[in-house]
Amino acid sequence: MSHLSPDGLAGCGLLHACGARLVPDSSGEVPVDRFLGQTLNGTYFIQQKIGSGGMGDVYKAIHRTLESPVALKIIRPGLLSDPAMTRRFQREARAASRLHHPNVVTVTDFAQTEEGVLYMAMEFVNGRTLASVIAEEAPFPEVRVVRIGEQILAALAEAHAHEILHRDLKAENVMIESRRDAVDAVKVLDFGIAKIIAAGSSTFTREGLVCGTPGYMSPEQLRGEEIDGRADLYSLGIVLYEMLTHKLPFEVQTPMEILHRQLTEPVPPPSARRGAPISPVLEQLVLSALSPSRERRPASAEIMRAELQRLATSLNRSGAEPEPTHATEVLGQNSPGPNPGRPETPGALLRGPTDAKAGTILDAAVVKRIEQRIAPLLGPVTPKLVKRVSSGAATPTDLCRQLADFIPSSEDKKKFLAWSDQNADPGRPSAAVRTPADVPPPRTPPTVWHPAVLERARRELAQYLGPVSGAVVRRIGPRARDLPDLYHRLSLEIPGARDREEFLRAASNEPPEDA
């Protein structure tokens, strides 16, 4: 939710929690606004109203101590009549504030005044929404589409690594600014805010507010099913399609019409709507992101970003455009680092293990054999991925185990690892003759919980973490030894000490039913 000058707010990327477009005031009369000229909470001097939406109004304000501009969203008083809504807003704002990435708008503060005014402060971006740029300049050259797309994917990869889904990604939620050191620098708005929904529910409807924007929503989101990061990739596919064609794939009016066409009609190829040829690799990537089946979409934002970067390299070599000065190293420097308490994500593994032997160089023939074996499972991104991961792998087996984390299908992953045990490292002893030092220590089997226990834990945790609680419980449950250990581990995910104590006290007073 960062913001810009009023002329950049047409179709603004400032929206309410579930996708309502913020629109600048266009009437000739200056409305009476009790916040203009006031200092909120003794900190933010409110200068100008720059937009409105279903969730609240957005202002440009000045931080009195720092003397710097911020975008200030003030929540509508009518929404505050529901205490649960206020708590969900605060928890989702807290989650969004943990995202620190060059392509994500930073949430710097959120609080409620003594008078009951709930607000969120964000960095102020002096630019335009991608929607307004598309309206004026689309269709874009392919190089520009790739450049903007890979930055959006970098933002998505960072959020997904923190188990935050966007749920309402669209061109109006992407800010574009031009800087001396960067052309088309991207900032993505409203991470996590679209998830202010009733705990355990996949939709939130209230007085005309619908979670998501139908034209950008995946089929599973339109059906109200539980979604994962691939729903955001579907929405990104729509944005890429818009940049290429200046059109949406399906231009209909109602969610049911969109869902029907998504499931019954193929997406028109962007080249047909553009009226000009498009790189087959780019076109296929867009169409795969728009697959009605999430299993056929790219497995993660990081993998899709790697494919866009590979295409960017190809376009740059062909002389289509100089390498953008702001482009970040794909599969590298901006990938999220390992997070204690959470298994390393593919983004972290791409950098290679920190304990790999310095200077280890794997046999090229062995690496090539591994690449050929895994290519059918990963697709065109395989050469780039294998090259990057192999630079940090200590042994062929280590390389295979890191690559296996990128295989979407658990069955394919199991088969690949079984193959690697027999074929990846010719110099490694076989299982039949392996010495005790080669045998890994036995792993503690994951704890299997009764679904009712996990559901109760999820509901109780949702009061503090909101909709992300389900993913947290699924991640932590298998590691916990017993019920007290489960609740202790879950409590560590709650930011505030007082909230942690309250959570544990409630759990001890009303424990979940036994398995």
Distance separating the two termini? 44 Å
Please tell me the overall pLDDT: 76
Provide a count of the helices: 18
- Morphology: globular
CATH H-level homologous superfamily name of the largest domain: Transferase(Phosphotransferase) domain 1
Low-confidence stretches: 1-26, 196-210, 321-359, 429-441, 511-515
* Overall domain count: 4
Number-wise, the strands total 11
Order of strands across the main sheet: 3-4-5-6-8-7
- Any idea what the CATH architecture of the largest domain is? Orthogonal Bundle
> The CATH topology of the largest domain is what?
Transferase(Phosphotransferase), domain 1
| Class inferred from helices and paired strands | alpha+beta
Which percent range fits the helix content?
A: 25-40%
Assess the beta-strand content as a share of residues: 5-15%
Largest sheet: 6 strands, antiparallel
H/E element string? EEEEEEHEEEHHEEHHHHHHHHHHHHHHH
What does this structure look like?
This protein has 515 residues and is α+β, with helices and mostly antiparallel strands. It folds into 4 domains: 6-123, Phosphorylase Kinase, domain 1 (2-Layer Sandwich); 128-317, Transferase(Phosphotransferase) domain 1 (Transferase(Phosphotransferase), domain 1, Orthogonal Bundle), CATH 1.10.510.10; 352-432, no CATH class; 451-509. The protein contains 18 helices and 11 strands. It has helices at 83-97, 130-137, 142-161, 219-222, 229-245, 255-264, 270-274, 280-289, 301-317, 346-349, 364-378, 382-390, 396-404, 410-423, 451-465, 469-476, 483-491, 497-509; strands at 12-15, 21-22, 39-40, 44-52, 56-63, 68-75, 107-112, 118-123, 128-129, 174-179, 182-188. The strands form 3 sheets. It has a 6-stranded antiparallel β-sheet with strand order 3-4-5-6-8-7, with helices on one face. Strand 10 and strand 11 (182-188) form a beta hairpin. Helix 3 (142-161) packs antiparallel against helix 5 (229-245), helix 3 (142-161) runs antiparallel to helix 9 (301-317) and helix 15 (451-465) crosses helix 16. The longest helix is centred in the N-terminal third of the chain and has 20 residues, at 142-161. The two termini are 44 Å apart.
